[in-house]
Design a protein that fits this description.
Blueprint lengths: L4 H13 L33 E8 L2 H17 L3 E8 L4 H10 L6 E4 L4 H6 L7 H5 L10 H4 L3 E2 L2 E2 L2 E6 L1 E5 L1 H6 L11 H15 L2 E3 L8 H8 L19 H15 L6 H8 L7 H4 L2 E7 L2 H7 L6 E3 L14 E8 L6 H13 L1 H7 L5 E2 L2 H10 L4 H12 L15 H16 L5 H19 L1
Parallel strand pairs: 1-2, 1-3, 8-9
Antiparallel strand pairs: 3-11, 4-5, 6-11, 6-12, 7-9, 7-10
Helix pairs in contact: 1-3, 2-15, 10-19, 14-15, 18-19
Length: about 450
């Protein structure tokens, strides 16, 4: 059962008022464990009290597998710590988390997205991690200040950024070659992408792009920034622009590509989405492009395709600095957790230790820890795809503007409305112009009521 963002806020607030939010962790006893140096020498916990930490994250099977390896490795050196895991795919992750939180079952450690962190912070569901940074339990000196501050809301540090990533287009060279298309350069435009996508469909019968432009608001946010605007206003109470043509042009652009078969229609996309990232059409050779983050080529390599390449998204000539350095994800700790100190110690190990990073190898994005990045570069363990991911951050710098604030409270509801209205356009149930006006009204209403 899906739970709306407004209902989540009400339910969680009511549960908190009734004192029904139960602790998610095990023993509340604090340990004297060291915070885990960047050298990777994780000391065993100073306490013998058994502690269970519940942890949840989203991702594909390869992420599930290596994250479990990391948890097992941590338990080796902290034998009193065991983990209860709740891995999930992206689809449905936050619906399940909202339900768990509202009923008092929020996991101790939560992999958190920029799109939802404000909602959970505003509902007081996330612990302030400042004390653990201040006392050195979490060594955040390895994280750039601007990146670390992306997890700070209303004076509280509610998330530790694990990695940085950028919106990217990923392409399959063999599909482009089959279509007789030269790989694009980083200064390509939206018109050029549309032309390439249609040529791929015409020459090969494959998709030009194998994803959905309305799966969430990430690509649309990039589109908006191409006009020199931000998706949301600084106060998070309204959209950051008032021109409905920015929305209608986006819907018209993608509707045209769908009508040519160059992009999956909603029915086709929903079938693709059930297969998971590892079976994305760009990985299987059934599409030329995919839109994701710059760690996607690693996902492709883990799924058996090590030929994928990264390219910056198409440009809008109005503003060629629409990209931004994005915290790819955070680790947050539930306010209800009774084992916050132990959670903070684990997060520090996950973030800074050589042991953890040797297993993870940048799959969650370019590590936010400078020591972790340097270790991986020096280790010689990075694959060609991982080196490309690291280099992409530098290559894309010329197209980056200021990093926007974390998405405001109500973002999950906005994602749902955005997708629903987009699908109505693509099903020819509403015109793009009418859809733009309706979407603006609904988003502004959601933002005003949640922020």
């Amino acid at each position: 059962m899906k739970i709306s963002r407004r209902n989540f806020l009400k339910a969680a607030a009511a549960a908190g008022a009734a004192g029904a939010l139960a602790a998610c962790g095990g023993s509340s006893a604090s340990t004297a464990a060291s915070s885990g140096a960047a050298s990777g020498s994780a000391a065993s916990s100073g306490s013998s009290d058994a502690v269970t930490i519940t942890v949840t994250w989203w991702g594909g099977q390869s992420r599930h597998d290596y994250t479990q390896q990391m948890l097992d490795k941590y338990t080796e050196t902290h034998p009193n710590i065991t983990f209860e895991t709740r891995p999930s795919g992206w689809d449905g992750y936050f619906e399940k988390l909202a339900t768990d939180t509202a009923t008092g079952g929020m996991p101790d450690i939560v992999q958190m997205s920029t799109m939802y962190i404000s909602t959970y912070a505003n509902n007081n569901s996330l612990a302030d991690l400042s004390e653990f940074v201040d006392d050195g339990t979490i060594d955040a000196t390895t994280i750039d200040d601007s990146l670390l501050s992306s997890g700070e809301l209303d004076g509280k540090l509610v998330g530790i950024p694990l990695a940085t990533s950028l919106v990217s287009f990923i392409y399959n060279p063999s599909v482009l070659e089959e279509a007789g298309v030269t790989a694009p350069e980083s200064d390509w435009t939206w018109d050029e992408f549309a032309s390439i996508a249609k040529q791929v469909k015409e020459k090969t019968g494959k998709y030009g792009l194998g994803g959905s432009p309305v799966a969430d608001t990430t690509l649309f946010s990039y589109w908006v920034r191409g006009y020199g605007k931000n998706l949301y206003a600084d106060d998070n109470k309204s959209l950051g622009f008032d021109d409905p043509s920015i929305i209608s042009d986006y819907f018209k652009y993608w509707a045209d590509l769908m009508s040519s078969g160059a992009v999956p229609n909603p029915d086709e996309y929903e079938q693709i989405a059930t297969l998971g990232n590892e079976s994305s059409p760009v990985i299987t050779g059934d599409a030329a492009f995919h839109q994701s983050w710059n760690n996607f080529t690693i996902i492709g390599a883990n799924a058996g395709n090590d030929t994928l390449k990264l390219i910056t998204p198409p440009l809008n000539p109005t503003n060629d600095k629409a990209l931004w350095n994005n915290p790819s994800m955070f680790f947050s700790i539930a306010e209800t957790s009774s084992v916050k100190k132990e959670c903070a110690e684990f997060i520090n190990w996950f973030l800074n230790s050589d042991e953890a990073n040797d297993i993870m190898l940048g799959e969650r994005g370019t590590p936010s820890s400078s020591t972790a990045r340097q270790h991986l570069v020096d280790s010689g363990k990075l694959s060609a795809q991982q080196v490309d991911m690291f280099n992409y951050v530098d290559d894309a710098a010329a197209y980056c503007g200021a990093t926007p604030n974390p998405d405001p409270a109500g973002s999950s509801e906005i994602n749902t409305v955005f997708k629903d209205i987009g699908y109505q356009v693509f099903y020819d149930q509403i015109s793009a112009d009418d859809a733009a006006k309706q979407l603006m009204e609904e988003i502004n209403s959601i933002l005003a009521s949640n922020n």
